Amino acid sequence: MNLNATLFAQFVVFFILALFTMKFVWPPLMNALDERAKKIADGLAAAERGKLEMAAAEKRVQSELASANDAVQKRIADAEKRAQAIIEDAKRVAAEEAARIVASARADAEQQVSQARDALRSQVATLAVQGAEQILKREIDPTAHATLLNQLKTEL
Predict the structure, then answer these.
(1) Statement: the pTM of the whole predicted model exceeds 0.70
(2) Is 145 exposed, middle or buried (0-12, 13-18, 19+ CB in 10 A)?
(3) Cα–Cα 20 to 30 A to 6, which of 24, 92, 135, 140?
């Protein structure tokens, strides 16, 4: 066997194998690697976009929470103001009612005092007549002396 021929044959086989590999094996392998690199790059870009969107969403959530908190504080303040207004209105109505009740009670008391005075005058007039009757030892006619009794009532 000739060493040169063997070397030459191995060189030809190697060259054919290299051509076959470059023509049929290498392009699909490179395409697969390129696709994988593209998928990885797309995944990294999507992750970066997701981080940015997450940060933007976080900012929106914070602003929404702040505005909701402000709205709640405003509603609480409005409710407290309204409660104060209702309390003040109730106090005013209660004071008016109390004044009306006191005025009514005073008028009632004055009326009762007036009635009591009239009753006392009547009783004093009757007692005066009875006293005069006792003194004179005779009965006085109340109808005949009605003017005298009325005059006595007004003096008392």
Answers:
(1) no
(2) middle
(3) 24
> Got the DSSP string for the chain?
--HHHHHHHHHHHHHHHHHHIIIIIHHHHHHHHHHHHHHHHHHHHHHHHHHHHHHHHHHHHHHHHHHHHHHHHHHHHHHHHHHHHHHHHHHHHHHHHHHHHHHHHHHHHHHHHHHHHHHHHHHHHHHHHHHHHHHHTSPPPTTTTHHHHHHHHHH-
Interacting residues of 153 by C-beta distance below 8 A, sequence separation 6+: 121, 122, 124, 125
- Give the residue from 58, 140, 117 showing the smallest Cα distance to 109: 117
Tens digit of each residue's pLDDT (9 = 90 or more) over 58-106: 999 999 999 999 999 999 999 999 999 999 999 999 999 999 999 999 9
Domain that holds residue 95: 3-155
- pLDDT on residue 21: 93
Eight-class DSSP state of 140: P
Q: Is the pLDDT of residue 139 over 60?
A: no
